[in-house]
Write a structure and sequence with these properties.
The chain is an alpha+beta fold and 257 residues long. The protein has one domain: Aminopeptidase (3-Layer(aba) Sandwich). It is 42% helix and 21% strand. It contains eight helices and eight strands; from the N terminus they run ββαααββαααβαβαββ. Strands 1-2-3-4-5-6-8-7 form an eight-stranded mixed β-sheet, with helices on both faces. α7 (192-207) links the parallel β5 (175-183) and β6 (211-215).
């Protein structure tokens, strides 16, 4: 099975409510600081934010630093595709972003990794080590005061359990996985999430593999419109979470290889 990476720039119009045009392009390292802020502001006031980062209002920069690390860590993987949406008139200013990973040990996953080229893979390996050293030392010297480390660890355990239950099964192990989709609060409702998701759905369609993800209650509505199906609920939720969202899957119309 062959894989294809997203083109350098693909343009499309926004929803019918506006006349703006948007482009989808690969993310750049210079985008990361703004993307980290979007990660924080998009989840502001939610139950999950209160659970994971209860002191974010007092230490927003600490959480931004954590988001910068997480975004770059994903970008440094040879399995990763990270794209941003921008106005066509302002292509250097990202408004939303998505990060996707080609999961599995099959030939399709290996083909995608090889498509990055030896030189790029070496650079990514060096980048991963640099990130590990710099941020590990940084978090030891300057801890993230915004977050609850025990809750972060607990949440990670929940996610691992859910992933094993719903994705570590035949027909889903080899897939594209949507790691994160975030739209700036000021630009939500303009179709940017749909445009970004079309990138990974097209990659999956060409390969004949599914797309899996963990959906928030808000995200669930978008994913259902795109044809995703609910696999099941989260094994655990933070106190005060009233439900919605869960683990979802999208299968290409031509079936899964």
């Amino acid at each position: 099975m062959a894989t294809q990476r997203p083109s350098k720039s693909s343009s499309s119009s926004s929803s019918s409510s506006t006349n703006q045009a948007f482009i989808i392009r690969p993310a750049r390292l210079s985008d990361v600081p703004l993307l980290a802020i979007y990660g924080r502001t998009a989840y502001a006031g939610t139950v999950i934010m209160a659970f994971l980062s209860p002191h974010v209002d007092k230490y927003p920069e600490d959480l931004d630093r954590r988001f910068r690390y997480q975004i770059q860590k994903r970008m440094a993987s040879p399995r990763n595709v990270t794209v941003v949406a921008c106005e066509a008139s302002a292509p250097d200013v990202p408004l939303a972003y998505g990060q996707f990973s080609r999961v599995g040990k099959d030939e399709g996953a290996q083909s995608f990794i090889r498509s990055r080229g030896v030189f790029t893979r070496v650079l990514l390996w060096l980048w991963r080590w640099w990130l590990y050293v710099v941020f590990t030392v940084g978090f030891r010297l300057w801890p993230d005061r915004s977050s609850d480390e025990d809750h972060l660890r607990e949440f990670g355990e929940w996610a691992s359990k859910d992933s094993k239950t719903y994705f570590d099964v035949e027909g889903r192990r080899e897939r594209w996985h949507a790691q994160i989709l975030t739209v700036s609060p000021e630009w939500q409702g303009k179709g940017l999430g749909r445009k970004i998701m079309s990138v990974v759905m097209e990659l999956a369609r060409k390969e004949g593999v599914p797309v899996g993800l963990f959906a928030s209650p808000v995200g669930e509505r978008l994913y259902r419109k795109l044809g995703f199906e609910m696999l099941g609920d989260f094994c655990q939720r933070p106190e005060g979470d009233e439900g919605g969202g869960g683990l979802m899957i999208w299968n290409p119309k031509d079936g899964v290889n």
